Amino acid sequence: MNVIEVNNLTKYYGKSRGIIDVSFDVEEGEIFGFIGPNGAGKSTTIRILLSLIYPTSGSAKIFGKDCINYGPEIKKDIGYLPSEVFYYDNMKVIDLLKYSASFYKKDCSKRIKELSEMMDLDLNKRIDDLSYGNRKKVGILQGLLHEPKLLILDEPTSGLDPLMQQRFFNLLREENKKGVTILFSSHILSEVQKLCNRVAIIKEGRIISLEKISTLRENSYKKVTIEVNSPVKGEYFSIDGVSNLEMKDNTISFLFKGDTNLIVKKIAEISISDVTIEEPSLEEIFMHYYTRG
Amino acid sequence: MNIYLREMKSSRKSLFIWCIAMIVFIAAAMGKYAASSYVSGQSLNDIISKMPEAVKSMFGADRFDLSKAIGFYGAMFIYVVLMAAIHASLIGSNIISKEEDDKTAEFLMSKPVSRAKVITSKLLAAITNIAVFNIITMLSSIYFVGYYSKGENVTDDVIRLMIGVLFLQLIFMSLGLCFSAFLKNPKLASPCTVGIMLATYILSLAIDINSHLSGLKYLTPFKYFDAKNLIYEKGFEIIYIVLSVLIISVFIFAAYVFYQKRDLKI
């Protein structure tokens, strides 16, 4: 069953681009990564899912229900952590959490206690006095305290120290084991890599790739670095399957995806002094998506 | 209910300050009346009767008997009205837009609550604020005017005046609500509302000074519940009550429609 179905969502803010023709599904029980550089449209997509803003065209469903028409109903089972956390001034942490809990018709006090101990958060401090990282924890708590079936996290880890990140990831894994579906947006690939089953990559408002992490990790990409004896024309390696082509003095490097024979032949035809062919890091694969053009 | 309580909690301090200010203002104003009635031999009316028309109109002296406590109160009542209008404009234009200004809209609206319900809760909180303001002002007026009125019964007059103010408050509150629901940039809601409020006030002054403008009186709520009419003459006029109710309902209805349709500014 699909928990989230996004169909051809397009959003323009006046004339400026938000997202264009975004479609993807998130299955029940999966951790779905949503990856892209800043301004690519991750938050826009998420805000449409929560009907904070309305799409120019297209539609989205959560739990099989249209997210605009059934907004309040489906939000009962959604926990949302916004990318920037601002909360009411003059409120203590516990007051905010109680206010948050008051929207759900269940008793969340036990859960608040559990989570605050796990995340090491002082409930009696005023939110104004908290550091950015601690505010983020408040955000995490208000998103999780009602035991939602779907968690939508918009860049959740920024501001958390490594230890807290670790605890937070463990918490997410536990939730996921209980059957909670997670949509995890981030621009940091390594954290998505640790956690997610599948990723959608969004760039300049469009989904440009949707793959399983395991597929991405497979040896389909080679990172090739060549030292040449005499300069080679730029077009020489501009063949299908080559990306991130860089030439600096006599060093040429690129990523290659495709028939290895082809590229080896290509290399054999020129005079080289050194060559390495290795598995690229996921970061390098993604740079190919991130960089313009 | 939770949103309503949250709003009441967050506005209680400012409401308290407003109420104190109103009590002090009314006490001070009526204290001036006491002082003016001691001016030796010559009553305030005589001094003012020598002033030019425009100045008289500004002080309301052409319409009120300033030698009586209720007349003096009626003349300075416009300031009570203005303060009530400012308070109502600010409450109305801020109560929704502050969630977006303070970036809390994203928190609130991701909870299982419809935008209509958010407006309803906030509207009730705004009305409560306005009602408290009104009642406190009414009670302190009854007390202070009564204190100086030498036994004359002023309660009915004050109650009539304050009912008029309540309509005015509701008009400007709903105008503010409507602006904050409609404008894409919610920061503009309160300057727009206060701006319109002051413009209609100035229009009402212009109408007082220049009788050729009296046809415009329907455009300014400040003319709907004229203190002089409420104290001395006709009392409430049906046309203005109908007009007020109409304006208030249209603004509130529009607020619901606009707010449910627009993108939140996050």
Automatic annotation (TrEMBL), chain A:
<dbReference type="InterPro" id="IPR003593">
    <property type="entry name" value="AAA+_ATPase"/>
</dbReference>
<keyword id="KW-0813">Transport</keyword>
<feature type="domain" description="ABC transporter">
    <location>
        <begin position="4"/>
        <end position="229"/>
    </location>
</feature>
<dbReference type="InterPro" id="IPR050763">
    <property type="entry name" value="ABC_transporter_ATP-binding"/>
</dbReference>
<dbReference type="Pfam" id="PF00005">
    <property type="entry name" value="ABC_tran"/>
</dbReference>
<dbReference type="InterPro" id="IPR017871">
    <property type="entry name" value="ABC_transporter-like_CS"/>
</dbReference>
<dbReference type="InterPro" id="IPR027417">
    <property type="entry name" value="P-loop_NTPase"/>
</dbReference>
<dbReference type="InterPro" id="IPR025302">
    <property type="entry name" value="DrrA1/2-like_C"/>
</dbReference>
<comment type="similarity">
    <text>Belongs to the ABC transporter superfamily.</text>
</comment>
<dbReference type="GO" id="GO:0005524">
    <property type="term" value="F:ATP binding"/>
</dbReference>
<protein>
    <submittedName>
        <fullName>ABC-2 type transport system ATP-binding protein</fullName>
    </submittedName>
</protein>
<dbReference type="Pfam" id="PF13732">
    <property type="entry name" value="DrrA1-3_C"/>
</dbReference>
<dbReference type="InterPro" id="IPR003439">
    <property type="entry name" value="ABC_transporter-like_ATP-bd"/>
</dbReference>
<keyword id="KW-0067">ATP-binding</keyword>
<keyword id="KW-0547">Nucleotide-binding</keyword>
From TrEMBL, chain B:
<feature type="transmembrane region" description="Helical">
    <location>
        <begin position="238"/>
        <end position="259"/>
    </location>
</feature>
<feature type="transmembrane region" description="Helical">
    <location>
        <begin position="188"/>
        <end position="207"/>
    </location>
</feature>
<dbReference type="Pfam" id="PF12679">
    <property type="entry name" value="ABC2_membrane_2"/>
</dbReference>
<feature type="transmembrane region" description="Helical">
    <location>
        <begin position="70"/>
        <end position="91"/>
    </location>
</feature>
<keyword id="KW-0812">Transmembrane</keyword>
<keyword id="KW-1133">Transmembrane helix</keyword>
<feature type="transmembrane region" description="Helical">
    <location>
        <begin position="15"/>
        <end position="35"/>
    </location>
</feature>
<feature type="transmembrane region" description="Helical">
    <location>
        <begin position="158"/>
        <end position="183"/>
    </location>
</feature>
<protein>
    <submittedName>
        <fullName>ABC-2 type transport system permease protein</fullName>
    </submittedName>
</protein>
<feature type="transmembrane region" description="Helical">
    <location>
        <begin position="123"/>
        <end position="146"/>
    </location>
</feature>
<keyword id="KW-0472">Membrane</keyword>
